[in-house]
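Backbone shape codes:
***
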Amino acid sequence: MSGPRLTAGELPAKFLGHANNRAILEAAMRKTPLRMEPAEVQPAKPRSPIRQERPLTKLEADFLAHMTALGHKLERETLSFRLANGSRYKPDWFERIDYGSYVRYNVWETKGYKRSKDAVLQKVVAGLYPWCAFHFVQHDNARGWVITPILP
């Protein structure tokens, strides 16, 4: 079933503006096959629906071993605190202690050294979430584990 053929003058200008449309129209009028170069397509990286956990640093692994030996049951990066403008804070370690009548939440952040922006961020989070006890953890060769509470 073929309808009436159109000429280039009868087509609206929007069809003639693009180079590929013009080439297609000219090839159709000549009744010759159109040869187009294939575009290079980069293969997509395979994405896992499950987020990959980042590996533990040596400091985090040592702290986990230390706290496990003391009887604490730490969970790694399971809690995310919502801050202003859609930003979030995800601490290294989280522990929920149930005392029956009340629950205590301990949050630990392990760092090799303390930067001022980390201290400010942790103070802001501690002020927004007062029901959690926030701690900053460092390891000193002379003193061992130095755990500093973060007050709002």
Q: What stands out?
A: Residues 58-150 form a domain with the Trna Endonuclease; Chain: A, domain 1 fold (CATH 3.40.1350.10). Strands lie at 75-76, 81-82, 88-89, 93-98, 103-110, 132-140, 144-150.
